[in-house]
Each structure stands twice: as C-alpha cells, then as structure tokens.
C-alpha cells in the first residue's frame, strides 16, 4: 500500500476525479467533464500500489472515481457520466443543443410539436412555467405538490 499523503478536501466550486492517465473508463468521465466545462482537479492513482486513503473512499479501488466537496464518492464510469450530465453546464450546452437542433432543424421542431399533441404526452406534461414555479419551492424545501390543481 502506497504511503502518499491524502489530498485535502475538494474545493467548494469544484469536483475531483481520481483517475489514471491511460484508463479508457476514466476517459469517459473526462470527456463529460470537458464537454460540459465543469471545473475539476485530477489525482492520478498508482493502480499497482494504491494508497490506503483511496481504498477507504472507494473499496473497489477503481478509477474513475469522483469526489464532491460534500464528500460524496461516485464510481463506475457510466454512473459518473450520468452524475456529471445532470450537473448544470458551464458552457451552456443546453442552449447550444436547443439552438442547433430545435431552432435550426425544422423536422425536429415539427416532431416536437407533434409530440405535444399526443394524448399520452398531454396527459402527463406540465408547462415550463409550472415546472419552474414548482421547483422554485422545491429548491427551498417548500414544495407545493398541489401546484396548478
Ligand atoms: N467498470 C469500471 C471499470 C473501471 C476499470 O476497470 N478501471 C481500471 C483502470 S483502466 C482500474 O481501476 N483498475 C484497478 C483495479 O482493477 O484494481 C468502470 O466502468 O468504471
């Protein structure tokens, strides 16, 4: 077991990736971090001589592993990608995709309008405004589950 010192806590506005430079699984996570412009630091792990503190964070001892400022540890590459994909994009990928795919592709725009006419969609969808109003309350732990009834 390696005796390299344990790194300090993850800075508040950042996320930490435990990685290995040639790991293809970790590359998945790095792709999402870069694509979304998420601020992160990297600690590369010697996988043949793992530090004890790393095994305490992730008993599987595998990379990629993410650590948040709150001390949450996330591993298994598809799960790390999903976790990061849910984080807000700093480079505004949402607006990018909206611009490219919705505003500039008439077929997709038509399909979306068509979907909004579908009875199953109609029965289950809320307007963007209602969603916003609900989540505003939800975020401050005052969810109005009856909103819009
Ligand atoms: N299922 C894992 C596989 C990750 C994996 O195998 N990573 C390798 C490096 S490429 C590793 O950490 N090996 C260390 C070990 O098995 O002890 C994932 O998708 O994250």
Automatic annotation (TrEMBL):
GO molecular function: glutathione dehydrogenase (ascorbate) activity; glutathione transferase activity
GO annotations of cellular component type: cytoplasm
One biological process term in Gene Ontology: glutathione metabolic process
Occurrences of domain GST N-terminal (ranges): 13-92
InterPro entries linked to this entry: Glutathione-S-Trfase_C_sf (IPR036282), Glutathione_S-Trfase (IPR040079), Glutathione_S-Trfase_N (IPR004045), GST_Omega/HSP26 (IPR050983), Thioredoxin-like_sf (IPR036249)
A matching Pfam family: GST_N_2
Family classification: Belongs to the GST superfamily. Omega family.
Protein name: GST N-terminal domain-containing protein
Upper classification of the organism: Eukaryota, Metazoa, Chordata, Craniata, Vertebrata
């Amino acid at each position: 077991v390696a005796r390299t010192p344990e790194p300090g806590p993850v800075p508040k506005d950042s996320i930490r990736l435990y990685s290995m430079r040639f790991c293809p699984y970790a590359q998945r996570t790095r792709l999402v971090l870069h694509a979304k412009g998420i601020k992160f630091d990297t600690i590369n792990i010697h996988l043949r001589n793992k530090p004890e503190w790393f095994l305490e964070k992730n008993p599987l001892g595998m990379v990629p592993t993410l650590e948040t400022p709150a001390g949450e540890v996330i591993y298994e590459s598809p799960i790390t990608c999903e976790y990061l994909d849910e984080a807000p994009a700093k480079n505004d990928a949402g607006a990018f995709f909206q611009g490219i795919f919705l505003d500039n592709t008439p077929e997709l725009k038509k399909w979306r309008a068509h979907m909004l006419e579908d009875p199953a969609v109609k029965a289950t969808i809320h307007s963007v405004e209602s969603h916003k109003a609900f989540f505003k309350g939800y975020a401050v732990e005052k969810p109005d589950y009856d909103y819009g009834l």
